[in-house]
Amino acid sequence: MAELQKFIQSSNGAFKSDLMKSFVAKHKGGYSPSSAVPGFTGAGIFPSTTTTSTTTGGDTTDNANIMRQNIDNNQTGANTNTTTGNTTTTQSVTNSDNLNENNGNGNSNRNINNANRNTQTTTTTTKTTSSTTTATKTASPEQPDTNANVSEVTAILEEVKRAVPEAVQLLVQQVADATVDAHMATCMNTHKAVSEATQRFMAMKEAGQLPDMSKLSLSAGSMWEKMMEQMMPEMGKAIKFCKMLPGFSELPQEDQMKLIKHGSFEVMMTRFAMLIDHEKETMLDPSHKMVCPRAVILAMPMGKFLDGFFHVGAQFNPIGMTDGEIGLFTAVLIFSPCRPGLTDLKLVSNIQNLYQQALFNLMKQNHSDPEEKFSKTLSLVPMFRRINEEHSKALGGMKMQSPDSFDKQFPPLHKELYLEGQQ
């Protein structure tokens, strides 16, 4: 825990915003989402109708104070499921989602249930959650189950399409700008960098200067060691990215550590997916200095697991996300309320919804088919969760089979993040 604590306790790079602080203060308070399963992305905080705020007798140039006041006064729509103690009163719901108002602290949250959006009971919700969990676990990387969270994705899409108050719009834009900047500052695998590296290797190949990796004398084990050395800085960058995200530093430190331990590998997966050419079946190494054929990757220690990156690339890359959109999606992965051991699920869920809204808004600016891209992107969440779990299991297996070799190959931060973090 010492290595990770050093990263978290350092104030360098942490995002600070009075507007975000006001938002966090409004939405603090723990709750347990009824559908917290792998792929669960939380609940919407955005009202179904636009709230218009006016100011009189004050300085209209004080936008920060106005925005904070608007957020503090923000109320959700009228159709709610009211929960008091252990008794749930269910009402008819429109707009394809359920609104759960937690009377214990006065904060509202929307839970997405994967069943008929008409009148439902708590029993129905529980059965649906169980079904979703099964579907998620049985899907394979080669053939991801597109129905695993389709109802949830549809509900989230409807949520982010709704009009929101100007104060929330400004906060969402602030989140988007800061996240894109954080991604570009901490990610080496941008479209431009990967394209330049690919063109460089193509030129070397045409000139006969590119060695055949499959015929080199380097063993798969030595290549694995080189790749591991190159991955270490990327882990630090992924943690730094998390710290730079709006809202992250406002969470309890215990929750910050849980989110990093359980989510930082998913951040790295999205970044490494950029290195994959699933058509040519090759992968750039993290330093962009060599191209590895898939067969060489498969021969490495943990090769079968690493081969799953090609399945990720085949699903993720064709969506055609921009660098900024990838950054926002990785933030959605980080702020997942389904991580075990969180002390404030509600706050994590509400912050995640800001990032979902920011991702959709950016896709609307960049693409002619934003709804399709948004849905496809969120539908891949269970795949990232599953491979994340497989990574931890693979590390655990290596440790059991050869503990001495394991300790030599993996530095303390890697073991702390991806082995201890899942316990």
From TrEMBL:
GO CC, any one term: nucleus
Region (Disordered): 71-147
The keyword Transcription appears for this protein: yes
Pfam family, one: Hormone_recep
PROSITE patterns recorded: NR_LBD (PS51843)
Homology family: Belongs to the nuclear hormone receptor family. NR1 subfamily.
SUPFAM superfamilies the UniProt entry points to: Nuclear receptor ligand-binding domain (SSF48508)
PANTHER family documented for this protein: NUCLEAR HORMONE RECEPTOR HR3-RELATED
Compartments where found: Nucleus
Broad class of where this protein is predominantly found: nucleus
Name the UniProt record assigns to this protein: NR LBD domain-containing protein
Keywords: DNA-binding, Metal-binding, Receptor, Transcription, Transcription regulation, Zinc, Zinc-finger
Residue ranges, compositional bias (Low complexity): 72-138
Coiled coil spans: none
Highest rank taxon of the organism: Eukaryota
